[in-house]
């Protein structure tokens, strides 16, 4: 093989290498242009469309292949989302009520294709907010303004249950619901504060009255006990007891006597009662 043949072979190899590189380049460009795969991220679902028609299959997280030109994949977020809504309504006693609530919800993952097909991606504006507004007004109308405050947990539970049923029909699941605040007209707020003040004053007056009654009962009980003690003492007094008390008094007088009789006589003299009797007995 001469040099000419070797040179021709090298040219052929070079052409072949360039041809392979060109083919690979074309394939890469085609793959980049048509992208026959799709990546579904965490907390997402893929909605498959064949020439725009939504299919029954819902793609889970990961990489999936699709048919270029024929199939397109729309990504839907199925993570828990939060909606905050304000609404103006009326209570059963016709008081104006402004409510602010927070709702946590998510699209049911295996129903994401139906949500996209029937509602689209603007489901919050089309379904969530109107449902919250309607439920808040309907539930508030069943309670008085005062009950909305005193029965707040029950009102919150009732609203959550109503929203759960309403949104479930649209394949949206409620995770949590909470009432952030109630606000009323200034006139009603002042009336509530005045009522609470009156109730507190009435409670204080009742406590003071109960205390006075207890003290009076204690005083009566003490007086009754003292009277009963005096009565019992009176019942126990007898002639013998009286005589004994006299003898005890005379003995104490004798113990204190210094042996000298009183020198004062006459009508003003103080008699030495029972001394003789005591001496005789001794």
Structural description of this entry:
With about 280 residues, the chain is of the alpha+beta class. The chain is about 55% helix and about 25% strand. A hairpin with a 2-residue loop joins β2 and β3. α3 crosses α5. The termini are far apart. Mean pLDDT is about 80; it is low at about 280.
Q: Strand-residue fraction? A: 15-25%
> Which CATH top level class of the domain at 81-184 fits?
Alpha Beta
* Strand order in space, largest sheet: 3-2-5
- How far apart are the termini? 175 Å
Level-2 CATH architecture of the domain at 81-184:
2-Layer Sandwich
Tell me the helix content.
55-70%
Instruction: Return Rg in Å.
Output: 52 Å
Query: How many beta strands in the DSSP annotation?
Result: 8
| Spans where pLDDT lies below 50 across 5 or more residues | 278-282
What is the arithmetic mean of pLDDT?
79
Strand/helix succession: HEEEEEEEHHHHEHHH
Task: Briefly say what this structure is.
By secondary structure, the chain is α+β, with helices and mostly antiparallel strands.
Give keywords.
single chain, 282 residues, alpha+beta, Tetrahydropterin Synthase, Chain A, 3-stranded antiparallel β-sheet, elongated, disordered C terminus
Protein topology:
Layout: H1 3-34, E1 37-40, E2 44-50, E3 53-59, E4 62-65, E5 71-77, E6 81-90, E7 96-107, H2 112-118, H3 123-140, H4 145-150, H5 152-168, E8 172-184, H6 186-236, H7 239-256, H8 275-281
Antiparallel strand pairs: 1-4, 2-3, 2-5, 6-7, 7-8
